[in-house]
Amino acid sequence: MEISRATRSVQKEDVWQAADALLLEGKRPTIERVRQKIGRGSPNTVSPMLEAWFATLGPRLGAGGGGNALAGNPDGATANGLPPALVQALQQVWEQVQAQAIQAADALLEPVREDLQAQQQALEDAQQALEQERSLMAQQRATTEQALAVAHAQIKMQSGRLADLEQAGRQKDQFAATQQQRLQALEQELFANRKARDEADMAHAEQLRELQHSAQLQQHRVLQDLDRARQDTKQAMAAQRAEQEKLAKLEAQWQQDKQALQEQREQQTVQLQQAQTEAQQLLHRLQTAEAAHAQALALQAHRHESELAQCKLEWAQSAGRGGDAVTAADPAAGSSRRPMRSTQPAARPLRKLPGSRLRGKN
Fold it and tell me: How much is the pTM?
């Protein structure tokens, strides 16, 4: 607002009078000297008025007479009453002032030109950078949209895989329950077989009490074999319980992995893939453990059957030799009465355990 008031207060006549006064004092009129002479005004206001004064200074001096006026005046005075020497000095000052004004104007305009060129170059660089940024943003947007579509597809695929894993987990639970029921049935059958064997042993002991000492020794050996078979069965049951515990641990581990999968469902795709890999590894370990367990049970059952068949064969051979000895010692008794039928119940073939058939080599 102060600059506006100063601009309105300074007039062209004030600037021209101040410039004329400075010229009469022998000083070159400049913007700063004119402002000091007037006592007010800004450089932006005084500068165009001073340039107009310089533009009219030449015609004013020429109209004042110049060289032609001196030639037509014998007294050596010009038409405006100024001495010729003063007019000539004013002309020289004017030429110097004009040259200096041109240089000053060029000097003032040069930074403006450079500034304009710099601004133009900066504007062009900014426009180029803006175009590059727009192109880069468009590429990034396209890449982001593509990545987002891929991420959505992967999330959908991982959701389907997670549902498959949950279905596999439920099937595994059902399989574990079925295996538990089969185990209980096997234990009941084993108890029944053990009870039947105990009853058979008691019957054999009653019948063979009158046999020779060798038969008793053979019976003792058979009983030892049976005890060893029982120990093997107990070891098999202990191994089976260990497998069950291992299966329970695997089940707990699988439950933990399942919980981790559910918690990591909304995380990044890499974590979903890692959880899927862990679940597959766990399922592979479970299948490997079940296959190893089934193969171990099959091997143990096959060994027990072989040992039991061998014991039966040895027992039958021992019983046959004992019967021949009794017949030779008492032929009359043997001829007067019918041979006593063996009260030993027929050996019932053991039921094969599930999975006892040896699997073929992979």
Answer: 0.23
